[in-house]
Design goal:
- This protein starts with a strand and ends in a 5-residue tail after the last helix.
- The radius of gyration is 16 Å and the shape is globular.
- Helix content is 24%, strand content 26%.
- It has a single domain, classed as Fe-S hydro-lyase, tartrate dehydratase beta-type, catalytic domain (fumarase, Alpha-Beta Barrel).
- 38% of the residues are buried.
- It is an alpha/beta fold.
Length: 186
């Protein structure tokens, strides 16, 4: 098995173009969190020509909402949510500079097209291991939509956060390739 590839944020076209579906990566740097309502607010701001609370250029968005932190820890348990819930907003965010997304599950054809067109990347994080994933987060702060509580937008600082590339900028899809490889039918 190939070694995991260390990458750092902000992501660039060059980094995204080198990653392939199935690659294991260790992500370090700043990562944003945001789920359904935060995405809708970002999208509505874009459509109304309002200033966004964050510059999306080169950013990675983790579809997650953490539990409260324990004393001495920057964050509580944090695991990926189903990515398709953000699909109606994601192509526009990618167009505006979002380079990476972390979640679980398949993406829509429109999202996969935007990933390919704008040299972005979609990562899967392991579901069911939320307490373990929090170990890779060294800092966390709310940066927007604080009224949403745990679903507010946060800036996380991650170190060697373990991920797998699902959709790459060449149009490959790890989920679909796995179905074919293991002779699984839909």
């Amino acid at each position: 098995m190939k070694e995991a590839i260390p990458i750092h944020t902000p992501l660039t076209d060059e980094v995204c173009k080198k990653l392939n579906a199935g690659d294991r990566v260790l992500l370090s740097g700043d990562v944003l969190t945001g789920r359904d309502v935060a995405h809708k607010r970002l999208f509505d701001a874009i459509m109304s020509d309002k200033k966004l609370p964050v510059d999306l250029t080169g950013k990675v968005m983790f579809y997650a909402a953490p539990t409260p932190s324990k004393p001495g820890h920057p964050i509580g348990s944090i695991g990926p949510t189903t990515s398709s819930r953000m699909d109606q907003y994601t192509p526009k965010l990618i167009e505006l500079g979002l380079k990476g997304m972390i979640g679980k599950g398949q993406r829509s054809p429109e999202v996969k097209d935007a990933i390919q067109r704008y040299a972005a990347i979609y990562f899967a994080a392991m579901g069911g291991v939320a307490a373990l994933l929090s170990r890779y987060i060294t800092d966390a702060e709310v940066i927007a939509y604080s009224d949403l509580g745990p679903e507010s937008m946060m800036r996380l600082v991650v170190e060697n956060f373990p991920l797998v590339v699902v959709n790459d900028s060449q149009g490959r899809d790890l989920y679909e390739e796995s179905l074919e490889r293991y002779c699984l039918k839909r």
